[in-house]
Structures are given as C-alpha cells and as structure tokens.
Design goal:
Elements: E1 9-16, E2 26-34, E3 40-46, H1 55-61, H2 74-85, E4 89-92, H3 95-109, E5 121-123, H4 124-131, H5 136-144, H6 154-171, H7 179-186, E6 198-200, E7 206-208, H8 218-224, H9 226-234, H10 239-252
Parallel strand pairs: 1-4, 4-5
Antiparallel strand pairs: 1-2, 2-3, 6-7
Helix pairs in contact: 5-6, 8-9, 8-10
Length: 256
C-alpha cells in the first residue's frame, strides 16, 4: 500500500560513534524524502564526528575513523540537513528513542535552531513491536519476505524501513493510512524531553521518570532541592533534557 501523504515524509536512519544520546555523534545520515504522489529524494552523507568511533560501533556499521577523516563536520551541513527536513513529517525505526534525540543533540551542539515540535513522527519499530515484537531484520523478512542486505548501512536501513511501513499498511486494515494517525499509534510515551527523562503525568505536569525523584513534579523538586537542577545541568544529560528543565526552572520564577 502506498502512503497517503498530505506533506512530505522523511524516513531517517543514523549510524553513530556509539549509543549515548548525550555524548555520541553521527557518522552517517541517510534520509529518504517521499513526496505526496510517491516521488522520492535521497540525502545521504558521512560525517566526521570529531570524536573516535567506538570499536563496537565500527563492528556494527563498518565505518572507521579513517573512513570519515575527510568528511564534513555536522556544523558544516546542519543547514542543509535542516532544509531537507523542513515542512516534513519524520519516520524511522526506533527513531523516537535514538535517531531523533541524537539528531536534535547535534543541532543543539552547534546552536542551530531546529525545533522538533514542528514535526510529526512515525516510529515503525513501535508499530512493529505492538503488532509482532521483532527486530529490523526480522521485520523486513516478516513484512517483505526478503532478507535485509547491507544491514547497518544507513541507506539500506532507511529504504527497508520505508518498505516495511508500506507493508504494515497492507497487512493491518486497522492501521489508518494517515501520518497523523500513524504518529499517534506509534507514540510510545508522553515525553517532555526526547530522552524520556522527564514525562507528563495525567494532569499534564512534568515529572521525573528516573532516579530518586521518579514520579515527583520537576518544578516542586527544583523548589525544594535547588541543587538537583544544578546537578542535572552539570551531569551527563542530553542537551535537550537540560533545555527542558531550564524552561521549567525559568517558568517557576515569580511564582509564590
């Protein structure tokens, strides 16, 4: 089934130096833009991360430090990437837990104004896990009846993700062919920040989703224990998380 698109949809896949959203960097990005009507456009590039690629990561995606030594840095292509994503909905496989947060970290790190709230997101992995509980290679085999070749090549993974999403619409009649509905179905939580350290409770208030204050209101904790805000700002938390807690902290100024 072809996607019913009201605006372009970009399917993203990243290869990185490791698995930490806060400290690792992108070494390869591939984005497949699908336009209403089905026309496709690709943006694929390797990047010099400015830090060593972990041996574990190289074993997975096959990209070494030498492979990206002469590649551009993220700051050199941030505008080009943001322009490619402008006005588009975004999709990926495990994208909301990893690809989107780490991409936003890269933008924040170079002080580029990229607002993730301007996009809707479809996470194909979430749809898959809600329906079948598998992995990308198994998903491709299950939905497309083919083996995934060149796995962990960003372009191969992004192309496979696009094929899986279309096949999911064919397989599940209850999945509505509408990006807004797919975005809602594939949402896995009510995050206030992209990493899920801060979430919204049923009353729409930000609460901690980790540590000793898990379940407590962020604003209240910062009021009663101001040092906790400083600890987080000085800690190994993603820049997006620090951005969110700073907004909460600033919002509380002037309150009685």
């Amino acid at each position: 089934m072809e996607l019913n698109l009201k605006k372009p949809l970009v399917i993203l896949d990243l290869e990185t130096t490791g698995v930490s959203i806060a400290t690792d960097r992108i070494v390869e990005i591939s984005a497949l833009k699908v336009l209403p009507g089905g026309a496709e456009d690709w943006l694929t590039m390797r990047l010099n991360p400015g830090i060593p690629i972990s041996p574990e990561a190289t074993r997975i995606h096959g990209i070494s430090d030498a492979d990206v030594a002469n590649a551009p840095h993220f700051k050199d292509v941030a505008k080009r990437i943001a322009s490619f994503l402008e006005g588009c909905d975004l999709a990926g496989f495990n994208s909301m837990k990893f690809d989107i947060p780490i991409l936003c970290e890269e933008f924040l790190r170079v002080n580029f104004d990229f607002n993730p709230a301007k996009h809707r997101y479809v996470d194909v992995q979430v749809i898959f896990h809600k329906k079948e509980q598998r992995t990308l290679g198994a998903a491709y085999r299950f939905y497309c009846n083919r083996e995934l070749e060149n796995a962990h090549s960003a372009q191969a993974d992004a192309a496979a993700t696009y094929e899986i999403l279309k096949a999911q619409l064919d397989r599940y009649p209850d999945l509505e062919n509408d990006i807004e509905k797919l975005s809602s179905f594939s949402a896995f939580n009510n995050n206030a920040d992209l990493a899920g350290r801060i979430v919204f409770n049923e009353q729409g208030k930000e609460i901690f989703n980790f540590g000793k204050h898990k379940g407590k209101a962020v604003e209240l904790v910062f009021k009663e224990e101001p040092s906790y805000y400083s600890w987080m700002m000085n800690g190994d938390f993603p820049l997006n998380t620090k951005q969110v807690i700073t907004a909460i902290k600033l919002r509380s100024f002037g309150k009685v």
